[in-house]
Design a protein that fits this description.
Blueprint lengths: L5 H20 L9 H27 L1
């Protein structure tokens, strides 16, 4: 498959958590209609991807 650096995995995980927190904090504002779902979806994808990358890094090290 492919090799993943642990720092890349951590950055992807942090970016996913940031996207989800951005969407969660902006959900009550009346002028934001469609962008909130996009940030939440991207946050979930990046968070799951970051967790998978970290697991792969830890498995390959051991």
């Amino acid at each position: 498959m492919f090799s993943v650096n642990i720092f890349t995995a951590i950055i992807v995980l942090v970016m996913g958590i940031y996207d989800m927190s951005y969407a969660f904090n902006r959900r009550k504002q009346p002028n934001n209609k469609g962008g909130i779902r996009a940030f939440m979806i991207l946050g979930v994808i990046f968070t799951i991807g970051g967790i998978v990358m970290i697991i792969r890094c830890l498995i390959n090290k051991g």
